[in-house]
Amino acid sequence: MTTLLLEALTAAVGATHVLTDGDLAGWEQDWRKRYRGKALAVVRPGNTAEVAAVVRACAAHGASLVPQGGNTGLVGGSVPDSSGTQVLLSLSRLNRMRGLDAANLTLTVEAGCILQTVQETAEAAGLLFPLSLAAEGSCTIGGNLASNAGGTQVLRYGNARELCLGLEVVTAQGEVWDGLAGLRKDNTGYDLRDLYIGSEGTLGIITAATLKLYPAPAAVMTALATVPSMDQAVALLQLAQARLGPGLTGFEVMNGFSLGLVRKHFPQLRQPLPPSDWTVLLEQSDTEGEAHARALFEGLLEAALEAGTITDAAVAESLDQSHTMWHLRESIPLAQAEEGLNIKHDISLPVSSIPAFVAETDALLSARWPGLRLVNFGHLGDGNLHYNVQAPEGQEAAEFLRDHEHAVNAVVYDAVGAHGGSFSAEHGIGALKRDDLAQRKSPVALQLMRAVKQALDPAGLMNPGRML
Ligand code: FAD
Ligand code: ZN
To answer: Which distant-in-sequence residues (6+ apart) come within 8 Å of 227 by Cβ?
Structure first.
């Protein structure tokens, strides 16, 4: 069976693009190094027709497929299991820009295009593709859409779903659905596009997408502010929304411990403000220009200082300083990794519930695990926190995770549920949160999801064991 399948795959994409020997670790291990599998083969088709041929070959031989873009996903969804029977389908060679329509504000790209390249293509035309996240140098549009990625500009422009107008998909049967419409209105039946977005490779393979572009802002400006409490961080968000309206494009929060880890592991990174329990990063995009943006920021921050909402602030004087501020924020996950293994949470809550959630959950965790360290940061403007947990100082991290990860998750996710939140805001389910989904999603929702899976992938060959 294996030999026949490998022959069929070779016929589909050519021998040089079917890899079975050598070091396949780059494809078989996930970014966090928490999952490591063994692929029957890594297959690298070069266009949509070849993807369809690969899917048909796998279907004919009953082999399951794991699609992979940049392999930066954080929930173990993009690597094969350890059976040695799954075909890893890499989309990285589908990397053509198919066309930019400036009047329609759309860009059609293939799934393997790197996010940063897409941003640069839009920029070269004086336009903006606003999806932005720390993995943008290596993640792909296909992966972004398959996981409905969020990032740092969701507050203003929405997540990947809201930035996509149409898709091209290879179905589980190996047919091509051309839904590459650049339409902002289309009510002709069920929204197939929205079914595939966020489906994490479990329903079909995304091969291309028509993306929404925006006019580029005249100026983008960043500021940092220290706030005395999470309550005041939420108050600052309200004030910023009221004063800047749609000009507020980013609102990130970082607790003192997370910036402390950045200070410890990356001492060369200058931190413009002194340590504080909470620091907020604000980003403003202005259609008029830098002077206008600066005046708005200064007015906002002065009012906030007077009201006691913030204790200190620094507005970036240059693009360089803006980058440094973002670099601080984006270095938190890396500093945390330097500090040792940790438990990651990607939760969302109504913004209004966040102060109570943080106070209660911090207290519950510290009471049960004295000395536990909380690396709490994230996209406060979207109600999305990366509420991460580091073992108490002096305790072996791997041991702590082995013994307590499950219980820590239960405390956090119970609290999230009690406040009407979600246990996966932007990273998805993958292998990591599959049991949580089964346990925490309502039975009716699960039944509907299984019905969709059964209808679109009756043989269960598309990324099995992920999500459901
Ligand atoms: P992969 O990791 O290759 O795949 C992700 C999932 O999509 C897998 O289930 C895979 O099977 C499936 N898939 C991939 N391509 C396709 C396709 N063409 N068709 C069908 N299914 C497919 N995520 C956020 O949402 N916000 C963040 O701010 C953020 N920051 C990050 C920062 C860092 C440093 C890192 C490492 C990751 C971050 N992530 C973030 C997670 C991750 O980068 C994103 O989810 C990204 O969208 C994944 O893209 P990828 O191409 O790497 O996909
Ligand atoms: Zn995030």
So the answer is: 233, 236, 276, 277, 278, 279, 280, 309, 310, 311
